[in-house]
Design brief:
By secondary structure, the chain is of the alpha+beta class. Helices cover 19% and strands 42% of the residues. The chain has a domain of 55 residues. Strand 3 and strand 4 form a beta hairpin. One of its GO terms (biological process) is bacterial-type flagellum-dependent cell motility.
Length: 235
């Protein structure tokens, strides 16, 4: 009997030790090889061309593989309130006697009616149903989040109009807390500052993935048993 209790005590400790610890894989990044730029045919004529660089803007001439710093400053605010009330009342009655008069204008004799009513009271049909249902739901959400950081991204592709497709990753592992950040999007060369940086608000098709892994995330995570109960709980 004591061995069973000992197993129950040792088993959780053993399972806790088997939990995978967060780690970072230091792999060699894939090198981005610049594409061969087509030879620009110079044409005689005006010094200013719509296809050439702008005379009034500082356009960064970057290539595939160059690094750009992205200043991320995003905020998410949401305040919603939904309320719904649904109610339903239904009543149905069905009744009738097996013996009834043939013509409503011709009344039955008193003796016949007496026996007919007595027979219907025993052999008549009487059926009734009643149902009531109600459903009330109210949802309130109030969300306010801000996220600010800097990440260096690499130019992976150059479009025909001069825009750049960038992608950057950032991973940190400090005291068992792992933080991973992945960013991708399209930027214009005119939005790049002289410090070779761009704001996240100027990135088109911006995608940011931020993942935490560690003890802090384990505290905020809903236990798997509770998630299963919420999934199959019908009420």
């Amino acid at each position: 009997m004591q061995s069973k209790y000992l197993i129950l005590i040792i088993l959780p400790i053993f399972l806790t030790g088997c939990v995978e610890q967060p780690e970072i894989k230091f792999e060699k990044p894939t090198l981005q090889v610049p594409k061969t730029q087509p030879v620009v045919q110079k044409k005689k004529g005006s010094l200013y061309s719509m296809r050439g660089p702008s005379l009034f803007a500082d356009k960064k001439d970057l290539q595939i593989g160059d690094i750009i710093q992205v200043r991320i400053s995003e905020s998410l605010n949401s305040n919603t309130k939904n309320k719904r009330e649904i109610s339903s009342d239904r009543n149905a009655n069905l009744g009738g006697g097996l013996i009834s008069q043939m013509d409503a204008n011709v009344p039955l004799a008193s003796s016949v009616k007496k026996y007919a009513d007595k027979f219907n009271s025993y052999a008549g049909v009487n059926f009734g149903t009643e149902s009531t249902s109600s459903n009330t739901g109210e949802v309130k959400t109030n969300l306010s989040e801000t996220f600010s950081t800097n990440v260096s991204a690499i130019i992976e592709e150059t479009y025909q109009n001069g825009n750049y497709l960038i992608r950057g990753t950032k991973e940190m592992l400090i005291d068992g807390q792992k933080q991973s950040l992945v960013l991708s999007g399209v930027i214009r060369p005119y939005d790049i500052t002289p410090e070779n940086s761009v704001s996240s608000s100027q990135v088109a098709n911006l995608k940011i993935l931020y993942i935490k892994d560690g003890e802090e995330q384990d505290v905020m995570k809903v236990p798997w048993g509770m998630r299963i109960i919420k999934t199959f709980w019908p009420f």
